[in-house]
């Protein structure tokens, strides 16, 4: 049985807080290491390449740094209904690249928006699970305000709660707002200079399992479970942390207890 459950609960809260911060830091670490992958998709001639060049501020590049956050842009072949074998292979590669993305910019010609959304939504939307989608209506300089309202209405009926923006990539209209939307979509937690950032996927996995275990400890203490059950979850937390810090033995745990706690007879 635990000598002092109140003290253990306090320690478990502290440990949960530390591990939780490390787990959440992985999204930043992964972005620092690999960049935030953004796929630009849409029909042929929707303006994908023009937008890519605007975002990168140069003709040929595959990465860009926007306001301190690195984005890795993935250009893709145009998507449309086709019976051409070669073109179909290019479209299939587009969908494979889509799997790599966390953020998807669906470029749509604003002058033909409703038709494009109706034609492609069945192919695109099922592939966007757990991805942040932004509908980018390009060539907005060629369509009026009334038409824009019509497009938004169509978008909301086809894709409820869709995030939309009207731009003109050619004239660089509203592309700065799109950059801000990208930063918001990345949704990276704020970090300070002294924060430890996790960049290793194996460490992240071990920390995730350790976090689950320490939360079971908290729940077990709150529900007044027996010491045997709580101790097993503590051991499991230590086991997963050992993947990162090296093996933690029972002797090490006992030595730590006797050094830092007053154990009564």
Offer a few descriptive terms.
alpha/beta, 265 residues, 6 strands, 9 helices
What structural class do helix, strand and pairing data support? alpha/beta
Overall outline: elongated
Low-confidence stretches: none
Helix content: 40-55%
Largest sheet: 6 strands, mixed
Subunit organisation of the chains: single chain
Radius of gyration: 25 Å
Q: Beta-sheet strand percentage?
A: 5-15%
DSSP summary, beta strand count: 6
Q: Report how far the terminal alpha carbons are from each other.
A: 13 Å
Strand order of the largest sheet: 2-3-1-4-5-6
- The secondary-structure element order is HEHEEHEHEHEHHHH
Please give the count of helices: 9
- Average pLDDT over all residues: 82
